[in-house]
Amino acid sequence: MHRKQLVIIAAMITATFIGFGIIIPIMPELPVVTHFHLNLMLAIYSAASFLMSPVWGSVSDRVGRRPVILTGLVGYTLSFLLLALSLDELWLIYVARLLGGLFSGAVISCAVAYVADITTDEERTKGMGVVGMSIGLGFIIGPGVGGLLSVWGLRAPFLASTALTFLLLLFALRSLHESLPRERRRQAGGKKRESRWKAFQGSLKYLYGLGFVASFTLAGLEGTLQFFQMEKIGVTAVQMGGMLFANGIVGAMIQGGIVRRYVKKGSEPCVMLIGLLFCAAGFALLLLSSNVWNATLYLCIFSVGNALVRPCITSLITQKTTVGQGVASGLSSSMDSLGRICGPLFATALYGFGIHLPFVAGAVISIASTALIFRFIALDRARTETVRA
Question: What pLDDT, in 10s, does the model give residues 273-295?
């Protein structure tokens, strides 16, 4: 494993999610952003990322990871700058979130492909654990800082995000080296150009489906949690920032500690099953929230489960893909984005019928999705036996 390169990409992912996490406790406070608009913005952001992530991944298989990541960082910076300048104009906020979605896929999907490039199959889960830990660290720092910066005005967190992503761009220009040698790149005009949807064949379709479910339930929680807790226990933006801060700490500890150190190749399906049960328990317990402290504890239980599931999915996909790592990572990012499109819309619709329904549905879906893991295990075992025969 190229530890120096892994540290650089981890720092990039962390800084990217700090920039994203800063805005989470602020958006519901904007006068022009209602519950409906917030979730529609989440859906638009994710729709743009869903459409572009496979494209960015495919391009990176041909031209390399570095130029695509740099392009994504430029667009991501501009999206935050526009957001900082448009808090009084709802349509400009939508444009800013659309731009953010278009370019975020270039950063995240190519960063995952970068890690896949520099790790072996045996090291892959550890590498993806570092990716998950970096995302968790971004969510630790971002929401807490966003809540604190809001004391100086609602525009301050967005300006901070702009500055941070710009510094990240300068850092990448100087320190990020290419991970995909020219001889391993795919030719744009080659005679054999496999369809990217080939990645869904066989057992892998269940992993992509599970990735969708993990994102779908997480996004539904993000889209309704603050409104639920505002109504149930009167949570403030600063308190929500603290809850998300604690949630991020737990996620980072699980992915950077347990997943990176103790999850070995071949044990990922069992770990994912345990994770889904934790997710279901977290959803159910959140319904019992009576103050900020126990609400934070219940949210952290959900975080444990999510932190166990997501890096294992990514690791298995990159281990078993039959297409380029950029395409595989791009499609994985697209399934994540598709979940972020559908999750908030589904949860918001349920929330309108009853504020408890999104959490009941999240628990049921988490338990039901264990069936996807058993189907993956069965098909993967059959494929392995066929190859050996």
Answer: 999 999 999 999 999 999 999 99
